[in-house]
Amino acid sequence: VTGLTGLINRNGDWVLDPVYDYICVTGNFIYVSKNSLNGLYNSKMEQLFAVEYEDITVLDSTIMVRRTNDIASIYDLEGNVLQEMVIDEVIPLEYYTNEYRVLKDSDGNETVDEVYAKANCMTYKVGQAFDYGHFGLLSAQGKKLTPPIYTNIEAIAIDRYLCQPHGVILNDRGEPVEK
Questions:
Q1: 3-class SS at 178?
Q2: Are 170 and 163 in contact, with CB atoms under 8 Å apart?
Q3: In a 3-state reduction of DSSP, which class is residue 177?
Q4: What's the burial of 111, exposed, middle or buried (CB within 10 Å: 0-12/13-18/19+)?
Q5: CA 81 to chain centre
Q6: From CA 143, how far away is CA 163, in angstroms rounded?
Q7: pLDDT value for 39
Q8: I need a surface site. Which of 12, 48, 117, 142 has the fewest CB within 10 A?
Q9: How far apart are the first and last CA of the chain?
Q10: Are 49 and 64 in contact (CB under 8 A)?
């Protein structure tokens, strides 16, 4: 006994070999899972997605798959790509201007506040986790300037962006610049 599962037809023939940790037949699809990765077959036993995805969700007329690098794509129910990359969040970027302003509250107490300004570009995030994801740089018009390969992007000037984990500085075209 291996502890693995497969699928047998009414004649007793294996239609999916017992190599999976989990199988779920839902509607016209068969979800399979092995080593925490997921795949999908249709009701004709045709493999739509190999067992290499973090998550697969069948919706009414589409299938969303999320790779292990957090990038999600949308497919039709036959497995044809509709949208290559889903952006989960767009974040405006601001940079510190090296200026301060003095503010007074209703009691007349003064506080000093740093002044920030809007950068030329934005960042986009792929990944649904609140505190984790992969980031890329977007132009003000929404054009992807870099793939989502960074763990963080912060504006350090109106047209300069510090990208982690390697400390690369990019310009408004997504090109590396000298530090």
A1: coil
A2: yes
A3: coil
A4: exposed
A5: 16
A6: 18
A7: 97
A8: 12
A9: 60
A10: no
